[in-house]
């Protein structure tokens, strides 16, 4: 059983939802990224999404784009991200870590070499935004071989006919993109997201996390009523960007605690 599966099963047993925060590796620097990961885990994060900096993102809004630019300006690449995960694992061998990014850096390293390196570092899941299931066979096989969960996206425009193909390849959980746009681009339509999640239940057979439109405790609480997980990205990256020097870790930890409390108010069966 993977760490991701174990966490979701434990949460389900207690009627709780997963909190999955996102930060970009190397923003503002690699040392702070490591501190942020530990602080988020201590503050109540169940899984951590670690962004791999990339120069030509398609799904990331301006806030996360700027975080990648700051990391890339320091020369942070995929191998540095893996090194941060390995360092994190020296003190935390329980919190699952999912790498989120784009296919090009993985292709440059080679699928099998990347999967081996990710496994050795302690990575639990990989989400490549621009790799659709129809083109993901070779990568997913390499990840399966190293017991790493490939994570896939579904969106408001995904036809239900594609659900089975995504479910066939995916492991760990499904990431539902709640907006027709980039991260942080619009206000979450809670009713529409709930209806889409209900349509997926029983079709994908995995926990479903919702992201791309959750910016505060109130929206996190609303989503936690019907989703297995709440993913928070742009709001956390914004907090890092706006924090005075040396205060980013404390500000993010406080934000995680606030969102954790809101999510935990929804203990019980999913709506």
CATH topology: TIM Barrel
According to DSSP, the number of beta strands is 9
Query: Considering the protein shown, what is the CATH homologous superfamily?
Result: Aldolase class I
Q: Provide the β-strand percentage band.
A: 5-15%
What is the molecular shape? globular
Number of domains: 1
Q: Kindly state the mean pLDDT as a whole number?
A: 94
Q: Helix share of residues?
A: 40-55%
- Based on CA atoms alone, the radius of gyration comes out at 17 Å
State the distance separating the first and last CA atoms: 27 Å
> What is the CATH class?
Alpha Beta
- CATH architecture, please? Alpha-Beta Barrel
Could you state the order of secondary-structure elements as H and E?
HEHEHHEHHEHEEHEHEHEHH
Low-pLDDT stretches: none
- Oligomer type: single chain
Number of helices: 12
**What is the strand arrangement across the widest sheet?**
5-4-3-2-1-9-8-7-6
Given helix and strand content, the structural type is alpha/beta
Q: How is the biggest beta sheet arranged?
A: 9 strands, parallel
Characterization of this structure:
- Helix content is 47%, strand content 14%.
- With 271 residues, the protein is of the alpha/beta class.
- Strands 5-4-3-2-1-9-8-7-6 form a 9-stranded parallel beta sheet.
- The two termini are 27 Å apart.
- The mean pLDDT is 94.
Describe how the helices and strands are arranged.
Blueprint: H1 3-13, E1 18-24, H2 30-43, E2 48-51, H3 62-73, H4 78-89, E3 97-101, H5 103-109, H6 111-121, E4 125-128, H7 137-145, E5 149-150, E6 152-154, H8 163-169, E7 174-177, H9 190-200, E8 208-211, H10 217-224, E9 229-232, H11 234-242, H12 248-264
Parallel strand pairs: 1-2, 1-9, 2-3, 3-4, 4-5, 6-7, 7-8, 8-9
Helix pairs in contact: 2-4, 2-12, 4-6, 5-6, 6-7, 10-12, 11-12
């Amino acid at each position: 059983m993977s760490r991701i599966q174990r966490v979701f099963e434990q949460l389900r047993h207690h009627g709780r939802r997963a909190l999955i925060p996102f930060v970009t590796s190397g923003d503002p620097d690699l040392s702070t990224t490591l501190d942020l990961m530990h602080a988020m885990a201590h503050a109540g994060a169940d899984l951590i999404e670690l962004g791999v900096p990339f120069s030509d993102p398609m799904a990331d809004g301006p806030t996360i784009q700027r975080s990648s630019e700051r990391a890339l300006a320091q020369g942070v690449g995929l191998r540095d991200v893996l090194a941060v995960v390995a360092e994190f694992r020296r003190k935390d061998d329980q919190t699952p870590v999912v790498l989120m990014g784009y296919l090009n850096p993985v292709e440059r390293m080679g699928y099998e070499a990347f999967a081996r390196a990710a496994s050795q570092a302690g990575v639990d899941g990989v989400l490549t935004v621009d790799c659709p299931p129809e083109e993901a066979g070779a990568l997913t096989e390499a990840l399966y071989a190293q017991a790493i969960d490939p994570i896939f996206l579904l969106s408001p425009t995904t036809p239900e006919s594609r659900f089975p193909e995504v479910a066939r390849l995916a492991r760990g959980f499904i990431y539902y993109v709640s907006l027709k746009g980039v991260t942080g681009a619009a206000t979450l339509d809670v009713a529409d997201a709930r209806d889409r999640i209900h349509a997926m239940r029983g079709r994908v057979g995995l926990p479903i996390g919702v992201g791309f439109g959750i910016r505060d405790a109130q929206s996190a609480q609303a989503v936690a009523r019907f989703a297995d997980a709440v993913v928070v990205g742009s709001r956390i990256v914004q907090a890092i960007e706006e924090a005075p020097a040396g205060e980013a870790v404390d500000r993010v930890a406080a934000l995680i605690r606030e969102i954790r409390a809101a999510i935990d108010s929804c203990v019980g069966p999913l709506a």
